[in-house]
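Objective 1b. Sequence-to-structure analysis of Cadherin-15.
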Amino acid sequence: WQQHEAPRRVKRAWVIPPISVSENHKRIPHLLVQIKSDKQQPGGVIYSIKGPGVDEEPLGIFSIDKFSGKVFLNAMLDREENDRYRVRMVLGAHSPSLGPRPDPDPPALHPQLRAFALDLGGVTLEDPTDLEIIVVDQNDNRPLFRQDVFTGRVVEGAEPGTCVMTVDATDADDPDTDNAALRYSILEQGAAGMFSINATTGEICTARPGLDRETMGVYNLTVQAADMSGDGLTTTAMAVIYLEDINDNPPEFTKEEFSMEVEEQAAGVDVGKVFVHDKDLAGSPSWLAKFTILEGDPEGAFAIRTDPHTNDGVLSVVKPLDHEVRDRFELTVSVQNERPLEPSAPVFRENPRRISVLEGTPPGTAITTYTASDPDTHQIQTLSYALLYDPADWLQLDSHAGTVRTKRELLHPSAFLQGGWYIALVLARDDAEPPLSATGTLSIEILEVNDHAPQLQPPAGVLCGRPGRGGTLLLGATDDDRPPHGAPFHFQLSPQHPQLARNWSIARFNVTHAVLAVLAELPEGPYSLPLLLRDSGTPPREQQQLLNVSVCHCGRDGTCLDGVLAAATAGAGITLGALMIILGSTILLLGRGRGGPGEQDPRQGGPGGPQLSPAPLNPVPAPQDAYDINQLRHPELFSPRAKPPLRRDAPLSSGTPLAPRKLPSSPSDIEDFINEGLEAADSDPSVPPYDTALIYDYEGSGSVASPLSSIVSSLTDEDQDYDYLSEWGPRFRRLADLYGH
């Protein structure tokens, strides 16, 4: 068999949790805790404690009932003297025969209490245990200022917020509790309330303008510190603030005129004094006067100096005077301080004030607050504001706060803008006596908003219907917006009509122009192409627009050859007046149609008359046969093949076309009839704008005249040959003389 070692007994700690007791506890004795040993033997256990507060200084504070183990507090505690009492616990049995048990640990930082458990024979049942008693703080200490009187200095006229000094206090209570949380306040400083104090830091600063040493040179403040975050115990101290002088008062003569006498031939003698008064600190550079003779002494016979004691001016003679030559002198004398006088007029610190506002900003919008400051802070003054210059009457100004608001929409472009800036002047005035003022410049940049889409210019053109030479047209656009919301422009065929790409293409020419080209040979006639134009603004604006194109009969060199169209194509450089003459001559002389039997133009002497008809706005060529002149006399019979575009210059509500016109009394008066039709078209909201070039239909192969749509051609007149005009007959001879070679 094998003898097994018996299991060893694990010692348990005899632990007593910390005990808290409030300082200044007045119910004495007070039970703190009861300790009890689990090794209680038959016949009872004896308990005892030792250490500071029991058998060591301070004596008698704690005691224990030796039979029950109850620990009592026998005296009031002061946390500020000792914030806790500690004992240490030692485990293990101890026989009294072995003598005192040595302390295994070094002395503790705080007084130690030891609790012992003994049987009736004096044998230790438990090792000594640590007993910790924590003293809880009470608010039993007032704050104390570090000194009874605090002294500070600040210049007169200091702006509000200028810090002068700091007062501070201490509190002996627990800093981790509200018992030592201090708050500062000013109890008394006079009616003006010129100073304020930071409640947490105790820093004293100026609170209002108007510190004037000449009015009050010293301020005596009563300051208070209170614990419990301002609701507890309090204490007070004095804060004395001295105002330092600045030169805010000029010296002044006591009267406007002084009279003196001097013996002739006297030199180097004093004649008399001129007396001055200065409110600034006597003896300071702000008080010392300096005199100057301005007029009345061209020979330099007099001199003036300052009496250092009285600050008066002493006039003396430096050159002998002759009574017979001159018996009277009138001297003009000025006085000023040695230190320059402080400025006192209002001033705009930011001048000019520059701001940016979006065009179209609605009325009543606050755009800035433009205020001035008054350096004359030793006087309590109020500034008021007014608009001194507002040429467009765009603004309104709060006379007290200086807030600037829009009065109406800020428009762009405007004659009142200078390079996109609007200039206004603001007047600031104080209420001193006499009042002083300052002027501030308000520069407002009107920021461009992209609120316009590009417009096709011109909206019509002529080109040869053959790919290659002559089959191109230069397109342009304009935009009412300023950069960067305008060019570069983007031209494209309308994405809603993809079939257009089979016959047409658009390529960029430069930032404002593009080139329209035909891709396949097209029949002659008018075409209406929907284009999409987009600018480069942010965000970009785009708009679909119609381009009216007339495809002409092409010559070998790619130019339009037949009739008036050829003339317009070759003569694009001709003035508008000349082109109208050509058009009028063509209508009156060359027009031919399919008039009814017996119809004869009295101005032409032959059958028929001019055949004119508005072109249908669709992307297919027009019929190749001519129209009857009866359509001019009976417009109610004309039925357009496509709905014409709505006029952009007419109200949306006026979309009903005008009633058919009444036939004129004289059927032969075609000119008046046409003029009446033009006037009706100008006021009809269902047709293109009055300033839009109208495209007329192809007159037919039997007509001498070519299609009139060439009138809108915008080709240049470079290298054009106008000799063909001489072949048009006697009525065009004048034009041939003007433009022929």
